[in-house]
Specification:
The structure holds two protein chains of two kinds. By secondary structure, chain A is of the alpha/beta class. Chain A is about 40% helix and about 15% strand. Chain A has an eight-stranded parallel barrel, surrounded by four helices. In chain A, strands 1-2-3 form a three-stranded antiparallel β-sheet. Chain A is globular. Chain B is about 40% helix and about 15% strand. Chain B has an eight-stranded parallel β-sheet. Chain B has a three-stranded antiparallel β-sheet with strand order 1-2-3. A three-stranded antiparallel β-sheet of chain B has the order 7-8-9. In chain B, helix 7 runs parallel beside helix 8, helix 10 packs antiparallel against helix 15 and helix 14 packs antiparallel against helix 15. Chain B is globular. The chains are: A alpha/beta, B alpha/beta. At the A-B interface, helix 1, helix 3, helix 13 and helix 14 of A face helix 1, helix 12, helix 13 and helix 14 of B.
Chain lengths: ~425, ~400
């Protein structure tokens, strides 16, 4: 049975203010735990982008759950079958819990290839079509500790018809039932947990239907799909998530896919989300930026405002990175600084004052600027270290704020006095 | 440390091979001691591609390279000076050697024009014309603050012959004198001369005679490793070391292939640099005692061994060929893993070479090394056999 061995122990639940707790008994040994709200460690095939284990180890307090995606894995099925010992061992990872998702949240994939019986992922060699049978065969070679069931989430495009949304809900439920059937009959997947996937696009009734139906199945938790950054504005997202979480059991975790921006994270936590994917630091890195937003609520409020204003003044206008496809979420946010900017050429301060990551302890903005201007590989390494550290520290601060009833203070700190973002990106994000 | 002596460089010959011309030395430089023979990885633009300075230190690297031409362009000497020199800018606490920018004359020849004044470059970034003179090169290197600086030499491709070679050799001598005069930090930075003369023994000898009369702390053998016949290459190397002082380090520029390193150590060279090991890594080529392994090739997709089961580097301790093969399809970290391994390989090779010289069994080492690298005797490169024979090492 796709059991619910993982246990969600909630210490605080406040309606409209989020949940705080610990997800326990994770992994095959049942020894690991993950604090919520929290995020998983986003990887490419078990490697945090740009980082070898040596450089990764400069970071502390990383999540105990590593995320891998079938879009990176599917093309290696034969290799994994011959290897026999699963992705964790294949990647040389040791004490980690492995979660396997379908798609890579950092890379939106082409649409129009989903059928009643199949979904597609894109590997380095092109499109790979997955039936439930193939999907489950892959899970057997990956040997994750938990995985999301196969799902059709192609509802995030503008003007997705109601009919299409309904189909995605129906198909996803059908896939879930088929996955569970295979799962229950597979000895190799004994002890592995399955998350059901809630679909429904931007249609409230479909979201409710999907939640209710998925909740009836014996799953360990729920993925919320089709709500990713760029698919809708936060107000609608909050509304939908609130409605969805009303239908889901309190004692099972909710993982929101494809959302990583700090403002969206805060709003979604308030709406009842427990887990996020940590691909946002990677996206920030790829555009040559460093996360710089403050989440330190221990500061003197007046000083805090001054600091915020200074950073705002230097972060510049939204700059489109000319190298990237404008169709993706590559636009800079107000939470980061663009180190390619001339202003950093002789700025000898660390990326973020007080940050204890390897990059900030050893290097300066001017050096990062130089590395970016000269297209040096080390830029990606150092930025990934900093952005990962910063992002996970943000989640830590979020949990602390929830524990001490200081969520509003945190929101002001992160979002600024207006409580909103500096740049409205939703108009430009919906570009398909 | 060298600070206690008058010179920023001190060389102590620890052992000399009784059979070949090889030496093992302790080279004391301002930032730390360096054990020779040494291979110096190249970090052209103030970084070793994809590798942090901590990783480089962890690999045991004691000295690496930066490039004056590139750093002089971006971010420029003034900024680096503000950042406490190149050491401060990249946060590297050990030694740095900077090349003068001379080699770019050859590698970027479309963009350059040489006169007695210096080399005129047209910047590839903004089309502006820059004059790199001996004075300018030294000025930039003074700002960079490297422990070893190279003179600006008039570099001619080793495949060129005729009067240009002679002209360049003589000009290099004149430019050496200008560099010596221009060095503002002779108490902290060591200026090395570069022996030129192409593949012409007479010209080389003239250059050696002249340059060894100058009071410089070290000598480089330049103008080689540019595509010339290996038979000519080794003869020029050995001619050069025959006429270079024993008590000063000999730096053979641009050499980094394993065979070349071992042979040229036997011919009396102490220091080497080359982009090859780190560049080839980024293409998935891992260096191993029996040659190289192209990790991206299909045959390694299901090979669950490490690159080299006997290698102690992090890559080999943690990952298999199959994993790296797969990783190359999804993440840049794959390149970094191979880069780390290749640097480890090069440094480990030099450590073994040094150990065998100290223990008095370098010729044995050479034989074992060659046997491992080449599947059979008839595949030994002819030039290497000849070069080793010239220093009394016969390979079975």
């Amino acid at each position: 049975m796709a059991g619910s061995r993982m246990k969600l122990e909630l210490s605080r639940v406040v309606q409209g203010r989020g949940r705080l707790g610990v997800l326990k008994e994770l992994g095959k040994t049942g020894q690991c735990s993950l604090e919520v709200p929290g995020c998983l460690l986003h990887t490419h095939l078990g490697t945090v982008p740009h980082l070898t284990q040596e450089t990764l180890r400069t970071l502390s307090n990383l999540p105990s759950v590593t995320q891998v995606t079938l879009s990176n894995i599917a093309e290696h099925q034969e290799v994994l079958e011959e290897f026999k010992d699963g992705v964790t061992k294949f990647a040389g990872l040791h004490d980690t819990v492995l979660y396997c998702s379908l798609h890579d949240p950092a890379t939106p994939c082409p649409t129009g290839y989903t059928t009643n019986k199949t979904v597609s992922v894109w590997g380095s060699g092109g499109r790979i079509e997955l039936t439930v049978a193939k999907f489950m065969a892959l899970q057997k070679t990956v040997q994750p500790d938990w995985y999301q069931s196969m799902a059709d989430g192609e509802t995030w495009l503008n003007n997705t018809s109601r009919k299409r949304v309904r189909k995605s809900v129906d198909r996803t439920l059908a896939h879930l039932d088929e996955c569970l059937l295979v799962h229950q009959q597979s000895q190799e997947l004994e002890g592995v947990e399955v998350f059901g996937v809630v679909e429904g696009g931007d249609i409230l009734e479909e979201r409710v239907r999907s939640s209710r139906e998925t909740a009836k199945r014996p799953v360990a938790g729920f993925c919320l799909d089709g709500l990713q950054t760029g698919s809708m504005d936060q107000a609608l997202r909050t509304q939908l998530i609130t409605a969805v979480t009303k239908e889901l059991p309190e004692d099972k975790p909710r993982l929101l896919q494809g959302v990583g921006r700090p403002d969206e994270v805060l709003a979604c936590v308030e709406a009842g989300v427990d887990l996020f994917e940590s691909f946002f630091p990677f996206q920030v890195t790829e555009r040559g930026c460093a996360l710089s937003f403050s989440f330190d609520i221990s500061l003197d409020p007046e000083l805090a405002v001054l600091e915020l204003d200074e950073e705002r003044g230097t972060s510049g206008e939204t700059q489109q990175n000319g190298d990237l496809n404008p169709d993706d979420q590559s636009l800079m946010t107000s939470f980061e600084i663009n180190l390619k900017d001339q202003r950093y050429k002789d700025d000898f301060r660390p990326l973020v004052e007080g940050c204890v990551c390897y990059c900030c302890q050893n290097h300066q903005r001017a050096y990062l600027h130089h590395l970016l201007v000269t297209n040096e590989l080390l830029a990606g390494v150092l930025l990934m270290i900093h952005n990962t550290a910063h992002y996970h520290a943000f989640f830590s601060a979020l949990r602390e704020a929830l524990a001490n009833d200081k969520l509003d203070v945190l929101k002001t700190r992160v979002l600024g006095e207006s409580g909103g973002r500096q740049k409205d990106l939703t108009d430009t994000d919906k570009s398909e | 440390l060298a600070g206690r002596t008058l010179s920023p460089l001190a060389l102590r010959v620890v052992a000399e091979c009784p059979v070949t011309k090889a030496r093992a030395c302790d080279l004391t430089l301002p930032h730390c001691a360096v054990s020779t023979p040494v291979f110096m990885p190249v970090g052209t633009q103030g970084t070793l591609k994809g590798i942090t300075v901590d990783q480089l230190e962890g690999l045991g690297c004691q000295i690496c390279l930066g490039n004056t031409y590139h750093l002089g362009m971006r971010p420029g000497p003034d900024l680096i000076e503000k950042a406490n020199g190149l050491h401060g800018f990249m946060n590297w606490k050990r030694n740095l050697l900077t090349d003068s920018g001379g080699f770019q004359m050859v590698s970027l020849v479309e963009l350059s024009e040489v006169t007695e004044e210096g080399v005129k470059f047209k910047s590839p970034y903004d089309g502006k014309e820059i004059l790199l003179s001996p004075e300018k090169s030294i000025s930039i290197q003074n700002s960079l603050g490297s422990d070893i600086m190279m003179q600006l030499d008039d570099v001619v491709s080793s495949t060129v012959s005729g009067p240009r070679v002679e002209e360049a050799m003589h000009r290099s001598i004149r430019w050496l004198d200008r560099c010596i005069a221009a060095n503002k930090n002779s108490d902290k930075q060591n200026l090395f001369a570069i022996i030129q003369g192409g593949l012409n023994a007479e010209l080389r000898k003239v250059c050696l005679d002249e340059m060894t009369q100058r009071d410089v702390p070290g000598f480089a053998i330049g103008g080689l490793s540019g595509g010339e016949e290996k038979n000519d290459f080794w003869r020029m190397v050995t001619l050069s070391t025959d006429h270079l002082p024993r008590e000063k380090p000999r730096y053979l520029m641009g050499v980094g292939y394993a065979v070349d390193l071992v042979v040229c150590v036997a011919l009396g060279c102490d220091m080497f640099d080359c982009v090859f090991p780190t560049r080839t890594a980024r293409f998935g080529s891992a260096l191993v005692p029996w040659g190289s392994l192209q990790v991206k090739q299909k045959q390694y997709a299901k090979d669950f061994q490490p690159i080299d089961p006997e290698c102690q580097c992090h890559t080999c301790k943690k990952h298999s060929r199959a994993y790296l093969h797969a990783l190359f399809k999804s993440d840049t970290a794959a390149m970094h893993h191979i880069t780390v391994h290749n640097i480890a390989y090069q440094l480990s090779l030099m450590r073994s070479v040094r150990r065998s010289i100290v223990e008095g069994c370098f010729p044995e080492f050479i034989r074992t090394f060659m046997k491992r690298l080449f599947p059979s005797r008839d595949l030994y490169p002819g030039w290497a056999v000849d070069a080793l024979a010239s220093v009394n090492v016969t390979l079975e």
